[in-house]
């Protein structure tokens, strides 16, 4: 009980703070808060008006595009397609008016021709009107540019005709019929400064489902994303039946309705940050790599390669192609691939016997390390270093002794270089610093002969 009261207080205070913030930052004269809704103090209302620049963000709606409207959490934009159709569009208008909610309508040109009064009613009620093609073809993704241009331009012209040609009343917003997006319509619309509107969630109200199902889908999908553009149709009885409950539930759950209008010369776009145009903006604390975009060259899309002619398939031997003839000839037909030439066993390669001097180590590289493994050798080396004159003869003695063990000396060097020598650490100092620790030994003639004799194979 106490928890419930606390939650209620917290909710109320949040609403008051939120409303105050919205009032100071986002409100424009067009926006109407719930409290301003005549005859309905509990109306959902329109929390703010968002002014967008279609050229800065030419495609929106996460059902198909990376970007969507820069909405805050729990903000929803309502859109209605395919009207005006008096029977249902008028009911939708009445429901929206009862909640003081502003929406965006995407009208079909042919519908506007039949019912121009319906278009004027949308404008008179303060809603935004965009277009949805002339005839609602579901093949815009396969259309050549000329047909796309005709559908878009005729749809705009028909809707404008209902508005006595007043372009200021028509938003440069377009929804592709059936959301059949493709590069040709998108590129054409962008070239005209028209924003393509996909959606963030539909309610499947064009399918043969119950109003309850429309309501469930709308609410479930809004709750899954917490914000976004809802796609509905003002020509469907199930939409009319579901809409009051959708609006009531949005109100109960703290959602707010945002009205979107296009930027004009005297109405600048609402300032936004680029990341606000993403449903889930990438976090700034996690490093990510953005690959460069692949440029969309026009010529790559239009260029076609020539079809190959038969002469290109030059098999050289026409007989090979003749199935029947090949069967008659049988095994006598040989492939044209080069056959390996096997002319007896391949000669075994023999290498020349290396000369003895190949194995002789140049004298300057014959480095003998005095820092040996045993303690006795270390003492010997220290004494040799301490007594000048004696050091040289001792060193000569040591090198002569080690020259008798050339294998061991040779094995010590690489091990020492890698620091893997066992026992006492072996320090290799440059010869100039101390000739006691590293000594370039001169081999005695006997040692040299012995070493050479051992290594040269016979
Ligand atoms: Zn449609």
Describe the structure.
This protein is α/β, with parallel strands linked by helices and 458 residues long. The chain folds into two domains: 31-277, TIM Barrel; 363-455, no CATH class. Helix content is 38%, strand content 10%. It is built from 15 helices and twelve strands. The protein has helices at residues 2-25, 86-98, 109-114, 116-124, 145-162, 183-191, 211-225, 237-252, 298-302, 318-321, 323-329, 375-386, 390-403, 406-417, 445-455, and strands at 48-52, 59-60, 75-81, 104-107, 128-131, 173-174, 195-197, 201-202, 228-233, 256-262, 367-369, 438-440. The strands form three sheets. Strands 1, 3, 4, 5, 8, 9 and 10 form a seven-stranded parallel sheet that branches. A three-stranded parallel sheet has the order 2-7-6. Helix 7 (211-225) links the parallel strand 8 (201-202) and strand 9 (228-233). The longest helix has 24 residues, at 2-25. The radius of gyration is 44 Å and the shape is elongated. The termini are far apart. Mean pLDDT is 77; it is low at 1-32, 389-441 and 452-458.
How does the SSE layout of this entry go?
Layout: H1 2-25, E1 48-52, E2 59-60, E3 75-81, H2 86-98, E4 104-107, H3 109-114, H4 116-124, E5 128-131, H5 145-162, E6 173-174, H6 183-191, E7 195-197, E8 201-202, H7 211-225, E9 228-233, H8 237-252, E10 256-262, H9 298-302, H10 318-321, H11 323-329, E11 367-369, H12 375-386, H13 390-403, H14 406-417, E12 438-440, H15 445-455
Parallel strand pairs: 1-10, 2-7, 3-4, 3-9, 3-10, 4-5, 6-7, 8-9
Antiparallel strand pairs: 11-12
Helix pairs in contact: 2-8, 5-6, 7-8, 12-13
The structure holds zinc ion (ZN).
Residues 81-82, 132, 136, 177 line the site of zinc ion.
């Amino acid at each position: 009980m106490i928890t419930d009261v606390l939650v209620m207080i917290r909710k109320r205070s949040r609403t008051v703070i939120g409303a105050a913030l919205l009032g100071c930052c986002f409100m424009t004269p067009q926006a109407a808060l719930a409290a301003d809704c005549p005859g309905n103090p509990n109306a959902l209302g329109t929390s703010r008006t968002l002014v967008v620049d279609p050229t800065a963000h030419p495609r929106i709606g996460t059902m198909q595009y990376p970007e969507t409207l820069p909405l805050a959490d729990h903000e929803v934009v309502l859109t209605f397609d395919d009207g005006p159709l008096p029977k249902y569009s008028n009911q939708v208008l009445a429901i929206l008016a009862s909640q003081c909610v502003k929406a965006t309508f995407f009208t079909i040109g042919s519908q506007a021709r039949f019912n121009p009064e319906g278009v004027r009613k949308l404008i008179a009620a303060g809603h935004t009107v965009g277009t949805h093609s002339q005839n609602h073809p579901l093949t815009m993704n396969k259309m050549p540019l000329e047909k796309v241009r005709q559908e878009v331009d005729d749809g705009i012209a028909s809707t404008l005709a209902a508005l006595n040609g007043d372009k200021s009343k028509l938003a440069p917003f377009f929804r592709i019929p059936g959301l059949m997006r493709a590069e040709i319509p998108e590129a054409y619309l962008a070239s005209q400064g028209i924003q393509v509107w996909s959606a963030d969630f539909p309610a499947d109200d064009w399918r043969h489902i119950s109003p309850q199902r429309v309501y469930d889908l709308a609410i479930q999908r809004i709750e899954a994303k917490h914000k976004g553009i809802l796609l509905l149709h003002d020509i469907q009885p199930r939409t009319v039946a579901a809409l009051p409950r959708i609006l009531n539930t949005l109100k109960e759950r703290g959602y707010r309705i945002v009205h979107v209008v296009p930027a004009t010369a005297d109405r600048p776009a609402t300032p936004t940050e680029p990341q606000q145009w993403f449903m889930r903006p990438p976090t700034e604390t996690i490093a990510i790599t953005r690959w460069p975009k692949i440029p969309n060259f026009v010529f790559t899309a239009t260029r076609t390669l020539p079809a190959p002619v038969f002469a290109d398939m030059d098999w050289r031997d026409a007989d090979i192609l003749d199935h029947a003839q090949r069967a008659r000839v049988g095994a006598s037909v040989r492939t044209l691939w080069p056959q390996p030439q096997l002319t007896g066993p391949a000669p075994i390669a023999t290498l020349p016997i290396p000369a003895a001097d190949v194995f002789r180590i140049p004298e300057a590289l014959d480095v003998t390390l005095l820092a040996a493994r045993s303690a006795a050798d270390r003492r010997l080396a220290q004494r040799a270093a301490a007594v000048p004159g004696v050091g040289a003869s001792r060193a000569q003695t040591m090198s002569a002794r080690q020259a008798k063990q050339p294998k061991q000396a040779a094995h010590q060097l690489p091990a020492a270089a890698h620091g893997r020598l066992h026992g006492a650490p072996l320090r290799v100092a440059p010869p100039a610093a101390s000739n006691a620790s590293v000594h370039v030994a001169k081999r005695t003639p006997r040692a040299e002969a012995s070493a050479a004799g051992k290594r040269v194979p016979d």
